[in-house]
Amino acid sequence: DPLWSRGLGDVYKRQILMLHNNIELEHITLKFLQFISQNAEAATSFFSITGLQPSNLRECCNEYSFFTGVINYLLSDDKLLQDFCNDSNTKPELILNIYNTLSNHNESSV
């Protein structure tokens, strides 16, 4: 464990981890929106599959489910994930780690 986390209870460690992952989640989502804004094929596919429109993206970005949906969408297509990661200089493992943390959090919330 990092020095800063020593002495913190498990609950606080999990909360700090979730906060960090939420920040990463928002960061990845913003990178993804930038990616599709520069890639017509990816944008067309994203809007077609999700039913969203460019006009309501800002509204959707206020919803936590939008962020998690982007991660799920990215992980559903290996080529898209690879293209996005190459373009944004993001490691695929980071996206998978966020997904796994979200999945574990959702399971423990049930």
Structure at a glance:
This protein is mainly alpha-helical and 110 residues long. Helices cover 76% and strands 0% of the residues. The radius of gyration is 15 Å and the shape is globular.
Account of the protein in words:
Helices cover 76% and strands 0% of the residues. With 110 residues, the protein is mainly alpha-helical. The chain is globular. The mean pLDDT is 81.
Strand content: under 5%
Q: Would you count the extended β strands for me? A: 0
How is the main sheet built?
Answer: none
Percent range of helical residues: over 70%
Structural class, by secondary structure, is mainly alpha
Unreliable runs = none
The span between the termini is 27 Å
Order of helices and strands: HHHHHH
Rg over CA atoms, rounded to whole Å, is 15 Å
Mean pLDDT rating: 81
Count of alpha and pi helical runs: 6
How would you describe the shape? globular
Task: Write the SSE topology.
Elements: H1 10-37, H2 40-50, H3 57-60, H4 64-75, H5 78-88, H6 92-109
Summary tags:
110 residues, mainly alpha, 76% helix, 0% strand, globular
